[in-house]
Amino acid sequence: MADNHLNREFDASAPNQKWVGDITYLWTASGWMYLAVVLDLFSRKVVGWQLSATPDTALILAALNQAVILRQVTASTGLLFHSDQGCQYTSHAYQDRLTELGIKASMSRRANCWDNAVMERFFRSLKVEAISREHYQTADELTWAVKKYIHFYNTKRLHSVIGAKTPNQFEQLFLKQA
C-alpha cells in the first residue's frame, strides 16, 4: 500500500503530473457493469477508461494502459497516480505495472473519499448528467452512453476550476503558451 502523496493537492501545473483513478458501478438490465476511469488533474480530462462486467485488476490495468498510450507516458515523465485502497489498486500486478512505467503510487487514507474528491465528482457528474436518466438494456448500450458522455465531458463541458473551459481547450491553451 502506498502513502497519500497527493494529500488533496488537486492542482497540477502541467499535463501528466498527477492522475487520479477509481472504479464505479453502473446498472444495466443485463446486470452490473464496472467503469474504471483515469483523470489528469491538470485539465480534469478523462485520459483513460474501460468498462467490464467484473471489477478486477484487468479492468483498471486496461484503463491505465489506455491513458499511458494516449498520453505517451514514459518512465521519465515523473507522474503521480492516486487511487483508493481497493484490492485492484493494491494488487501486485497493478503496483508492478506502475513501477514498470516509473509512476509513483499514491493512495487515499482508508475510508476517506475526500482524498480522491475530483474522481468522485466526475462519477457524480456522469451519473447525474447522463447515466441515471436512462435505463440501459445491454452492456453495449451503456458503453455507447459512457463513450458519448466522456466525449462531451472532454470537449464541451465547461469546468470552473480551469477557467470555464473544457479540458481539451485548457490543454490546447497550455500547449500554445509552452
TrEMBL record:
PANTHER family: TRANSPOSASE INSF FOR INSERTION SEQUENCE IS3B-RELATED, TRANSPOSASE INSO FOR INSERTION SEQUENCE ELEMENT IS911B-RELATED. Coiled coil: none annotated. It comes from the Bacteria. NCBIfam families: transpos_IS3. Residues 11-175 form the Integrase catalytic domain. Gene3D superfamilies: Ribonuclease H-like superfamily/Ribonuclease H. InterPro entries: Integrase_cat-core, RNaseH-like_sf, RNaseH_sf, Transpos_IS3, Transposase_IS3/IS150/IS904. This is IS3 family transposase.
